[in-house]
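2024-03-11 09:14:02 INFO worker-7 job=invfold-0412 stage=load source=structure_tokens
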């Protein structure tokens, strides 16, 4: 429908409606239709190519080539005509027109100082909980983000110098922050482009945080027996002797919540392998591994689409819309009983519909990275409790559960107790004045301290993400005219006015989204949601393994049954059945769990 006369008329009608009433205030049926129109409009106006290797064509794969039916290590050949598209090392794209993607030149780029923004607007004065979620939801989004994007290690030889106020006790003056590594693929032909950056992760939704995206890492994680990953006799991933962290695909910014999910879905991979080995006893280790990876990645994508997202956007409209993204508006029951009704993604869901990149080659975008800066979700303190009687087993601050301390916690508290402990408490709300203090003074071995909140603000500016008001306008939202219009909190409005020198157009996008009053039931702002509704669908719609190749011939009937028949709760129960009495009392595993006593 995108690009047709009907779609243009359809979107214009809803643009007119939204001048008088915003989509989330409409009755549910109308709100869902409005979301369809918004997505069409965003697909047509907010996908912009940054060129580079993704545009190159490649040789056609011969029949029977395993790359036709398996995900490659580095993400190549997902698009068969453009094999580098979405692979590790390909450029980030943009959701704003390229003329708006140029960073400001210093000193404007450093004004106001990101450090002062962090101190005055982001510091957690008192923990504000997100009562619609549990901490597993916070761990889950970090787990998924580690599959989607990674700008690489900062270039500390070329640092930004952040101005500090006289009353700032930061030990280094000025504060130095290494720059985002430059794009090594740029040529003279790119002179008319804004700065570009590469993604060191695979752009596709392929579970690379578990499996890795190099042959060496993947080989190091495999057992060589029936497709399985290496799991220790204690039921946990082996530790990397060099780092003391789980031996898994990606371990940056590791903590116990991430470790729980890496362990869980590594176990799930092995359970899928057992099912495939039973169904196809003549398959090789390689055949079972590749098929299990394909199935496991799809199961994670499904959980994210129909469970995590409706948990953080907890409204009837979003529950219906996100289930529609996966199953179509005909619904799950119809799909499971009758299969697809035609090719339409609206009627029968994106999985199994035709692949489409819409108006630009597929890639993660810098704006997508920007809207997933959700560090306020992380709590400062953790109380680990017993699943059997809810008694306190251990109390820690976050630094005591991160890095190598994650395994130390797992040696003292059982995995069912750990899942129970994170499932029964709330993460932080994504608002101003709720950024974890320990992340504002993050101490890392052999490195200077870091204020991650200041770095978050700086990264958006450095990478050319427009400031908040321009960002809104480029997403077809009206600009806010005053600080009071931005936030209903008068104290916050006064603080914003002071920090940004009374210039509403200087407010940073992350800060504006934190200040914005979200729709009722939403865990983040409507502005962030605009990027989400575009890119959440795009990660499925551009991927041939979720579209034209999402078939029983590629996944096997056993694999499709596994994806269709499982949820986050069933995955947890398969590996930790003692969670049954608690999970039986919740509809969504990312919503707060009841206490056992």
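2024-03-11 09:14:09 INFO worker-7 stage=emit residues=597
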């Amino acid at each position: 429908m995108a690009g047709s006369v009907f779609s243009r008329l359809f979107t214009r009608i809803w643009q007119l409606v939204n001048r008088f009433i915003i989509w989330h205030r409409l009755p549910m049926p109308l709100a869902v239709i409005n979301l369809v129109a918004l997505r069409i409009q965003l697909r047509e106006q907010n996908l912009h190519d940054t060129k580079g290797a993704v545009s190159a064509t490649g040789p056609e794969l011969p029949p029977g080539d395993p790359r036709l039916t398996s995900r490659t290590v580095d993400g190549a050949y997902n698009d068969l005509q453009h094999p580098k598209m979405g692979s590790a090392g390909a450029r980030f794209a943009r959701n704003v027109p390229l003329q708006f993607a140029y960073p400001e030149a210093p000193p404007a780029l450093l004004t106001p100082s990101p450090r002062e923004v962090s101190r005055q607007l982001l510091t957690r004065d008192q923990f504000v909980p997100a009562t619609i979620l549990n901490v597993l939801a916070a761990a889950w989004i970090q787990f998924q983000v580690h599959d989607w994007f990674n700008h690489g290690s900062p270039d500390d030889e070329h640092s930004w110098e952040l101005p500090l106020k006289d009353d700032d006790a930061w030990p280094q003056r000025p504060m130095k922050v290494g720059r985002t590594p430059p794009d090594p693929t740029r040529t003279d032909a790119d002179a008319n482009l804004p700065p570009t950056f590469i993604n060191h992760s695979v752009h596709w939704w392929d579970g690379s945080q578990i499996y890795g995206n190099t042959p060496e890492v993947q080989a190091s994680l495999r057992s060589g027996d029936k497709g399985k990953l290496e799991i220790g006799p204690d039921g946990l991933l082996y530790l990397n002797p060099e780092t003391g962290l789980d031996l898994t695909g990606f371990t940056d910014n590791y903590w116990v919540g991430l470790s729980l999910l890496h362990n869980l879905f590594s176990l799930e991979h092995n359970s899928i392998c057992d099912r495939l080995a039973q169904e196809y006893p003549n398959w090789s280790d390689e055949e079972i591994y590749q098929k299990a990876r394909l199935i496991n990645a799809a199961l994670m994508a499904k959980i994210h689409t129909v469970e995590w997202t409706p948990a953080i956007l907890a409204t009837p409209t979003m529950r219906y819309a996100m289930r529609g993204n996966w199953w179509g508006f005909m619904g799950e029951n119809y799909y499971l009983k009758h299969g697809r009704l035609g090719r339409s993604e609206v009627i029968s869901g994106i999985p199994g519909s035709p692949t489409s990149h819409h108006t630009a080659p597929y890639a993660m975008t810098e704006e997508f990275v920007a809207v997933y800066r959700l560090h306020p979700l992380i709590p400062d303190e953790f109380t680990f409790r017993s699943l059997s009687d809810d008694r306190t087993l251990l109390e820690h601050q976050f630094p005591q559960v991160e890095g190598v301390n994650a395994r130390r916690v797992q040696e003292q508290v059982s995995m069912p107790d750990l899942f129970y402990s994170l499932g029964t408490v709330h993460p932080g709300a994504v608002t101003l004045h709720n950024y974890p203090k320990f992340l504002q003074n993050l101490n890392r071995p052999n490195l200077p301290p870091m204020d991650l909140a200041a770095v978050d603000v700086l990264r958006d500016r450095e990478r050319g993400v427009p400031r908040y008001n321009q960002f809104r306008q480029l997403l077809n939202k009206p600009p806010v005219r005053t600080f009071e219009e931005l936030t209903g909190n008068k104290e916050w409005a006064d603080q914003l006015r002071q920090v940004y020198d009374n210039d509403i157009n200087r407010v940073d996008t992350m800060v504006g989204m934190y200040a914005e009053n979200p729709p009722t039931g939403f865990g983040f702002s409507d502005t962030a949601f605009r990027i989400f509704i575009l890119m959440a669908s795009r990660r499925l719609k551009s991927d041939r393994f979720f579209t034209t190749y999402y078939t029983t011939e590629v996944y096997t009937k056993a694999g499709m049954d596994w994806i269709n028949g499982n949820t986050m709760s069933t995955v947890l129960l398969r590996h930790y059945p003692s969670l049954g009495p608690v999970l039986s009392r919740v509809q969504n595993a990312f919503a707060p769990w009841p206490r056992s006593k």
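2024-03-11 09:14:09 INFO worker-7 stage=report msg="The chain has a mean pLDDT of 95."
2024-03-11 09:14:10 INFO worker-7 job finished
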